[in-house]
Amino acid sequence: MSGASDSQVSHSQIPRGLSRRPVEITTALLLIALGLLVLYDSYGRGAGWDNGPQNGFFPARVGWIFLAASLFILVQSFRTENRVFVTYEQLGQVARVFAPLVLFVALVQPLGLYVAAGIFIIVFMSIVATSRWWAIGLTAVLVPLACFWVFELQFRVPLPKGPLEALLGY
Amino acid sequence: MDDFSSLMTGFQVALSWHNVGFMVIGVVLGIIVGVLPGLGGPNGVAILLPLTFGMDPTSAIILLSSIYWGALFGGAITSILFNIPGEAWSVATTFDGYPMAVQGKAAEALTAAFTASFIGALSGVILITFVAPLVASFALRFGPAEFFAVFLLTFCSFIGMGRENRAKILASLCIGFLLAAVGLDSISGDLRMTFGSTELMRGFDFLVVVIGLFGVSEILLTVEEGLVFKGKQAKIDLKVVLRTWAGLPRYWATLLRSAIVGMWMGVTPGGAIAASFMGYGLAKRFSRQPDSFGKGNIEGVLAPETAAHAAGTSALLPMLALGIPGSATAAVLLGGLLVWGLQPGPLLFVEQKQFVWGLIASMYLGNLAGLVIVLATVPLFAAIMRIPFSYVAPVILIVCAIGAYTISNSIFDIWLMLGFGLVGYVFKKLDYPLAPLVLALVLGDRAEDSFRQALLGSGGSLKVFAANGLVTTLVGLALLLLLWGPVMDGVGALRRRGQPVAAKAAE
Question: Which residues contact B55 (CB under 8 A, 6 or more apart)?
Answer without folding.
Answer: B63
